[in-house]
């Protein structure tokens, strides 16, 4: 095999950046709920796919522009997230149990999606689907670019909010030491509901991005779990910029691996990177 | 007097009822119970839905006639959740707990292999519709109705390359890109050998794991290799995912073949134009003249639309499934028996008319001829194009 061309390498790396941005966007809500609420929310993936199907439905049947569906999906999913947190608090679900409960929720949402839209493939056809730009020899597809922009903007916005706003500081304090934060007047429950709502809304945004770029099938909920978990763990729990950076590192590594060697080696990359990170900085996930 | 009249009337009604029953062919007696599993949930559910619809249609059709051996047919379907290990448990349950009279195969190679092991343990006949690797079918009592032939990895690539050799500009270079999903991977390896023997230059060979999400780099490598023909060992959506990725970098392969694509998404995507694939049945002549085909196609189209399936056409999956029921029906009717041994012996000696053609089971692993032909997306729908005997009227293989 000869050396790969520059255009092949650059296009592959760009493709990795785009898919990495989606890993980051999916991982953002997961990382926040894991790091700040101590909930390992597997249902985050199910919510993202539910949002993708809602976007498909609103666009295909109601003729609403896919991006405008965000105006409906984000608030609706925020409410859903708040309701979920209420249930979690009501039954005092521990971190480990949250894994089991949210896995159950994932299965229920998958069955719901299959009941409504069947298990067959659904593809959202929109004006964005075929739109792309060309910069030199590089092709930049519009839906993927949009995902990257949303991922960067949302990650930065949440990082800034956590760092500089009172609510953000209170959230971090509650995660650091709940009882002391409460003693200082932090309303832990209300903050948890707010954060859970934000995480679900982020899943909604990720869902719209998935609908714009991918063909949908209910069982695809599970295909993202492994790699997004790797991105979240590499990026550090509760750190908004972590999943984005880690996602892009994983995405680019996978894509460049595909460009240079057999593509079947690519899935090994994310987990090999995760193992390396865990070896280099053990106990530094949070 | 009244009592006598009542007796006479009762006898008369019973007599008339019996005559009416036999004239209208209504089955009676205890039902013949046929058990199977299908992947009603999980990653294979989208295709398993097709098999569920087909089974429902066939059972309804047969019960509207005279049932099997004059008895109604009851189909017991359990959800194996796309898990072969669960299929094994459920087939065991169907035989030992539900005590079904006959078995029908589940969907997809892994589950069928599991069911085959159970059937062998209990000496039950297993007719199945979607087994992708003939060399793994070792049990004498299994009968495949997906007519791949015993060595599809050699026979089908030759059929495809024959088709392309007959075009004005036959391909000289080939890129083989393939999923490592077992039932397509061995076909791609076979295509590699056949292409080499036929003098095609291989400019790329790439493999990915089933479940791959990012096809950007693979598309870029295919574009870089610039082949005349791309053989895509894809199953389900993978073909569309690769096409999407190619479209994003402004690349359309000159000739492109997909092993087992999702028929709807591939036909409906603009970039799927002229895509080639393998099939055993399409909704065109000469297939519509096969026994039961036209009626089944009409019924399936209606039911699939009612069930909300985006693609309502009959192709390989539905045809293989319907053929499985036709084979079971033919064997039971011909032997007037539900005995697994009797049915097995009959099927090994006889040919059965099905909607995909005549099937025989006397070759290696009970496989007969490779009936797979080449189909192509033309004007947004699949039509068979090769060999000429199987081509839709007026259809030829389009190269651009």
Q: Can you offer a commentary on this structure?
A:
The complex is a heterodimer of chains A (286) and B (400). Chain A is mostly helical and 286 residues long. Chain A has a single domain (6-280), classed as ABC transporter involved in vitamin B12 uptake, BtuC. Chain A has helices at residues 6-37, 43-60, 70-90, 95-117, 142-164, 166-176, 178-183, 188-213, 225-235, 242-260, 266-280; strands at residues 132-135, 138-141. A two-stranded antiparallel ribbon of chain A has the order 1-2. In chain A, a hairpin with a 2-residue loop joins β1 (132-135) and β2. Chain B is α/β, with parallel strands linked by helices. Chain B folds into two domains: 32-147 and 286-305 and 312-366, Rossmann fold; 155-279 and 373-390, Response regulator (Rossmann fold), CATH 3.40.50.2300. Chain B has twelve helices and 14 strands. In chain B, β13 (373-378) and β14 form a beta hairpin. At the A-B interface, α1, α4 and α10 of A face α2, β7, α7, α8 and α9 of B.
How many domains in all of chain B? 2
CATH top level label of chain A: Mainly Alpha
Q: Structural class, from helix and strand content of chain A?
A: mainly alpha
Task: Please identify, by name, the CATH architecture of chain A.
Answer: Orthogonal Bundle
Shape of chain A: globular
DSSP summary, beta strand count of chain A = 2
Largest sheet of chain B: 7 strands, mixed
Number of helices in the DSSP assignment of chain A: 11
Question: How many separate domains make up the residues of chain A?
Answer: 1
**How do the helices and strands follow one another from N- to C-terminus of chain A?**
HHHHEEHHHHHHH
Mean pLDDT of chain A, rounded to whole units? 93
Query: What would CATH call the homologous superfamily of the largest domain in chain B?
Result: Response regulator
What is the correct CATH architecture of the largest domain in chain B?
3-Layer(aba) Sandwich
DSSP strand count of chain B: 14
Spatial order of the strands forming the largest sheet of chain A: 1-2
Distance between the termini of chain A: 43 Å
Name the poorly predicted regions of chain A: none
CATH topology of the largest domain in chain B: Rossmann fold
